[in-house]
Amino acid sequence: MKRNNTQAISLALELAMKKHNNVIVYGEDVGNVGGVFRATRGLQKKFGVERCFDAPIAEAVIAGSAVGASINGLRPVIEMQFSGFAFLAFNQLLAHAARMRNRSRGRYYCPLVVRMPSYDWNNGANGALEHHSEAIEALLCHIPGLKVVMTSKPSDTKKLLLAAIEDNDPVIFLECLGTYFNTYVSNKYRYNVQEEVSDAYEVAQLGKAKVLKSYDETSDPDLTIVTYGSKVYDCEYAVKMLEAKNFKVELIDLQTLHPWDQETVVASVKRTGRLLVVQEAVKSFSVASEIITTINEKCFEYLKCPPARVAGYDVTVPLSQGEKWFIVDPDKIITQAKTMLEYPI
Fold first, then answer.
1. Among 150, 189, 187, 148, residue whose Cα is nearest residue 169
2. From 20, 96, 132, 142, the catalytic residue
3. What are phi and psi of 343, to 5 degrees?
4. Which of 104, 118, 138, 292 reaches 20 to 30 Å from 132, CA-CA?
5. 258 is catalytic
């Protein structure tokens, strides 16, 4: 049946809790009301208060208790109500969860998942304050021992969340708030998020990107676009507009940000000779920075123009009236892509 991302998350949690008796779900308002975005609605009724419950409003306690639970045989899935609230939990996640396997020389693992809604800006419609509008994936990707996932399409969201729950390492599972429900808005552009999502227990491969558009070597493609999260929808639209101008664009959804799929991206850039990375987070010291650096190291002799990135500005996310200027939309993507495609060789 057709589901949006919130429904895909709920399905994945239900499937995991049915299959694994040691999976528990908790966080602020997660149990009784089903979470602030209702992704856990109905789980407490189905599995009881011992397996799906409300936690105190104390992110450090939520994360710290998950570390202890995970090294003692449980697989906790905890929710930070917004990613901006997770800073209070960083000591537990970065200093303990990420290091536990190394610290104990493999004696203990931390098979926990931290779900975090990210990127609250959405055409100014939400009007949320700054701590509801964080983009912290680069901070988390910098920490050895953490795996970082950011989803886009509901069918992949389900598979990736199940993979994260089954993984023996701590996984930060970032969810773009703007794509939670049926429609995603990016300034003047609107996209349908719903798609067919199977009820089956299906697990994706963490660390593997999804190629959304590709050409074989005989087609001589022109440009590689790499993106993730909500920007997948904007990039898909941009690719259609560029194809209408007879450009051939390969589009890659990273899905897992750490470890990221270097092999797939490198292979594409060697075919196209051009790389554009699109992200909604701020530009400097970012996921895009890491990808471009790696491509410069591994594909320099293949490049037809300098790699580029379309990203948020290096400012604190504006309040609602200024959000539309901050948002990365197809207009910005197409403009940068055309500059690269017209670069003199």
1. 148
2. 132
3. -65, 130
4. 292
5. no
